[in-house]
Amino acid sequence: xxxxxxxxxxxxxxxxxxxxxxxxxIAYIRVNGEGCWRSxxxxxxxxxxxxxxxxxxxxxxxxxxxxxxxxxxxxxxIIRLHSLxxxxxxxxxxxxxxxxxxxxxxxxxxxxxxxxxxxxxDPHTHRPLTPVDGAAASHEAASHGVVVRRRQQRRDEHxxxxxxxxxxxxxxxxxxxxxxxxxxxLPLPPPRPPRRxxxxxxxxxxxx
Length: 208
Fold this sequence. Notes:
Layout: H1 19-32, H2 40-44, H3 50-61, H4 72-85, H5 89-93, H6 101-118, H7 131-157, E1 195-196, E2 199-200
Antiparallel strand pairs: 1-2
């Protein structure tokens, strides 16, 4: 049996957070603490999902968040911790006060991977790369960095909450076609010749 949703999402606001919502969330947590995120939105007078409130607070509004670019010391610490812990971003974030796990993960994928590749190191194993591995890893890191930056931009526009993926657009095939996933524009097979008395006539011959 799955866990019940944290709120009735059809009655909540979606999209970017407003300044008024930010101030209301900050004022409530200053007085009452974080508490239970499932019940916090209603208690704070916010028409938001509990998960959205938690992400907004943890990633944007916390007073102890560290703003600005990562320092060289932080870069080296992240590299050293990643070689020991792998992709356990929450554990890594615990060693960098003021930095969030999501922030560190995005920074790793968009910056530190390229830094390690420029040093001739595999960002997954932290071992020296061969020439073939280096070319493949450079291409992978560049492609992944573009995806991560676009995803983070969409998250910022929605107040830090995950953005649902759009539903795939159904592609309708020709009438009577059993394969509804045929792409439009494909040539269709010629129509079957008419039948007469249960016998299929040769193509081009009309029934008498």
